[in-house]
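It is worth pausing here to work through a concrete case rather than discussing structure prediction in the abstract. The textbook approach is simple: state the sequence, then state the predicted structure, then interpret. We follow exactly that order.
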Amino acid sequence: MPPEARAKQFAPFAALKGFEEALSLQEAQKQQKAALDEEEIEKINRQLNKLTVGDETRLVYFYAGRYTPVNGTVRLIDEHKQYLEVDERRVYFDDILRFD
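Step two, the predicted structure:
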């Protein structure tokens, strides 16, 4: 067997065609988490203080490299661990961008 033919059997193999391109596209779409000023933080804190379990809410929070809107029912508010659960999503207070 010629050396060129032998080398082909050890060449990289892409089992999922387009997977590498999809990964690089996803990385390119990630956003930076915004730095909020004191006024914005205070506004979010006021909204958090008004919330009670069972309230309907709409907010935008930072998750997995992008800002994600969520709306639903508040299921849990854990002030000690600094998060709330909206339906099945856990939203940390520090990741909230705004309430809508």
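Step three, interpretation. The chain has three helices and five strands. The chain has a mean pLDDT of 85.
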